Amino acid sequence: MGSTKLFLFQIFFMVSLIHLSSAARRLADQVQEQAQLLQYHNGPLLYGKISVNLIWYGNFKPSQRAIISDFISSITTPSASKSTQTQQAQPSVATWWKTTEKYYHLGAKKHPSLTLQMGKQILDKYSVGKSLTSKQLVQLAAKGDQKNAINIVLTASDVAVEGFCSSRCGTHGSSSSGALVKKNNKYKFAYIWVGNSETQCPGQCAWPFHQPIYGPQSPPLVAPNNDVGVDGIVINLGSLLAGTATNPFGNGYFQGSAGAPLEVASACPGVYGKGAYPGYAGELLVDPTTGASYNAYGANGRKYLLPALFDPSTSSCSTLV
Q1: How far is CA 189 from CA 88, 115, 184, 215, 293, in A?
Q2: What stretches of 2-92 show up as alpha helix (H) in DSSP?
Q3: What is the pLDDT of residues 240-278, one digit of tens each?
């Protein structure tokens, strides 16, 4: 009985680690899915052509930048077209992303469609040091486009960020630039931050590619790109990109309070394949040569592990495999 109480306490502790900003990638990857429809809070969604800009903060190897750039390209290339989808290996990153599109067609109010396109890539070698506040993250995000943009700040493994590991693996929100301060949301840019947890907290932010610090212990999976930190970034970035598309300004689709929302991906924590349960990511594809686990192919032939997304058409967590 004592061990059961301890396990339940550990699960509760992990669920409670939620960042205080508009949305965050939770450190609760070992809990069950939430089978409820996410509520719409009447705010605008991103629409039209939106540039995805990458701000690399700190030292990233060219190979690491290629892994994440290819992931973004797998969403932003014309992969939505039927001709491209038939050419791509399945299951694909593009197919995974299509679940977010369903939120644009719910209810009486139909939202204009969203088209993501690869934008700028900015290299920043520690311009504000190796210990960052949340305010500094937003300032770094503002280096990207100031309108019709998602600006993604990625911090290297030797960069400490306020709340990183203790309460969040990444976060997303929105901000207005000084030149475009308007009340209308279309003058806001959306931003995302994700940290490389390889040396700081892989058991919290890179599971299932590392032993979890709480909950059931099972052998870690082999990372599909042979980089625990960057493959962990892809999982968190995918979750936050989906949340940005469906809840960009804190008043879109989410469940619970606006300060600690469950969104399209965070409503399905720890689920990557069918049959997932606490401590087990689910039935995944396995590369016969490397032994790496994955559930999606990218546009350029890479393999990725992506989180389940809450599908509004089935009111369940949707997995690619």
Answers
A1: 31, 15, 11, 37, 34
A2: 2-16, 62-76, 82-87
A3: 999 999 999 999 999 999 888 999 999 999 999 999 999
Q: What is the pLDDT of residues 283-315, one digit of tens each?
A: 999 999 999 999 999 988 999 999 999 999 999
Is the alpha carbon torsion for 113, 268, 192, 208 positive or negative? negative
Q: Are 261 and 23 in contact (CB under 8 A)?
A: yes
| pLDDT in the model for residue 80 | 43
**CB 160, CB 195: distance < 8 Å:** no
C-alpha–C-alpha distance, residues 60 and 66, integer Å: 10
Q: pTM higher than 0.70 for the full model?
A: yes
**Using CA atoms in the order 287, 156, 197, 23, what is the torsion angle rounded to 10 degrees?**
-100
List the structure tokens of 30. 């070992």
**One-letter amino acid of 80:** A
The CATH T-level fold of domain 39-79+86-198+225-266 is Collagenase (Catalytic Domain) (3.40.390)
Q: What's the sign of the alpha-carbon dihedral 17, 11, 240, 39?
A: negative
| Count of all residues that appear for the chain in the document | 321
Under a CB-based contact definition with an 8 Å cutoff, are residues 47 and 188 in contact?
no
Domain boundaries, the chain: 39-79+86-198+225-266
Residue type, 115: T
pLDDT value of position 83 = 43
Give the sign of the dihedral formed by CA 18, CA 162, CA 306, CA 54.
positive
Structure tokens belonging to residue 253: 């689709």
Spans of the chain below 70 pLDDT: 1-36, 77-87, 108, 177-187
Dihedral sign for Cα atoms in the order 123, 127, 132, 134: negative
Give the E-state strand segments of 48-159 in sequence order. 48-57, 114-124, 131-132, 149-155
Q: What is the pLDDT of residue 214?
A: 78
Closest Cα to residue 175, out of 146, 211, 213, 207? 146
Residue 187's pLDDT is: 65
